[in-house]
Amino acid sequence: MTRVQSLGRIVLVFWALWLSVVAATNVQDALLALGLLPASFKFASGNWGWINQVMDPREIPRAVQGVMFAGAIGWEALAAGLFWRATFGYRGGKLPAEAAVVLACGVNLALWGAFQVLDEVVMAYQPEAVHRVVFLNQLVTIVMLEALGRTERECQTHSCDECL
Questions:
Q1: How far apart (Å, rounded) are the C-alpha atoms in residues 160 and 141?
Q2: Where are the domains of the chain?
Q3: What is the gyration radius of the CA atoms in the chain, in angstroms?
Q4: pLDDT for 126
Q5: Phi and psi torsions of 93, nearest 5°
Q6: Rounded Cα–Cα distance for residues 91 and 164 (Å)
Q7: Which residue, 56, 26, 60, is CA-closest to 44?
Q8: Contact 107, 15 (CB under 8 A)
Q9: Inter-residue contact 28 to 45 (CB < 8 Å)
Q10: 85-144 residue pLDDT tens
Q11: Which of 56, 91, 95, 142 is the most buried (most CB within 10 A)?
């Protein structure tokens, strides 16, 4: 594997790890909210409290908030799993040849885009800035992976077992 391919894989590992931690700390937060973990438990995101703080004044029922939080956790876990799959299948090609990478990036973009839309709906402007930064970082990742990727023709011009 070339250094450029290694850089692409490192970026994919970053997203897989980061989203895994995000999902895990949100699961812990949900378990705390359900009383299934002691209040002293510290490895939790705090996002459930933030959701309540933003949605309670808008009279959004806690049950709806819970369903939305569970949906977000599922979406984050799905994105994390897709990034792990993309990491292990990554061959350093241009994105059209890296379907698993495209799928992982697309699911992640959709997640953070959905958060931004919801932020607007509930007028949560401060977290929207954070969600926008994550969304833009994903876009940068896509551009970087495409720029670093080798074309099928480039791979045919040398003997590389890692090429497409």
A1: 24
A2: 3-156
A3: 19
A4: 86
A5: -90, 175
A6: 7
A7: 26
A8: no
A9: yes
A10: 999 999 999 999 999 999 999 999 999 999 999 999 999 888 899 999 999 999 999 999
A11: 91
Q: pTM for this one?
A: 0.91
Q: Return the structure tokens found at 125.
A: 């402007």
| pLDDT bucket at 53, cuts 50 / 70 / 90 | very high
Q: Name the residue type at position 24.
A: A
Per-residue pLDDT tens over the stretch 77-86: 999 999 999 9
CA 56 from chain centre, in angstroms, equals 26
Contact indicator for 1, 155 with CB cutoff of 8 Å: no
The contacts of residue 130 (CB under 8 Å, 6+ apart) are: none
The tokens for 123 are 């007028």
Length of the chain in terms of residues written: 164
